[in-house]
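Entry type: protein chain
Record version: 2
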Amino acid sequence: MAFVPQLQKVEVIEASPDRLDVRGALTFATARLAYEAGLRTLRRNGSSNTPLQVDCAGVTASDSAGLAVLLELLAAGTRHGRAVRFSNLPDGIRAAAQISDVSALLET
């Protein structure tokens, strides 16, 4: 019997100009798509005194690439003059952040 990998999907939904909802897998397979969707929102809505809230409650799977996406969104927010905040981080991303000594960046 052959191994058939499961297709992973991610949705990054602009719930408002100040909030993104992430749903599905935030993994190596979906990282580029998730990052590009977040970057589009930052570009479209520009700088703001209101932080962009990224809600990860709908994330069903995550790995170190998911952590990389969130860190890149922080950097992109800085470049675009907008703070980025995260809520409902999955345990896998929290663990990867702790091991990588970047937890404080996600908690700001």
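Comment: Residues 14-106 form a domain with the Transcription Regulator spoIIAA fold (CATH 3.30.750.24).
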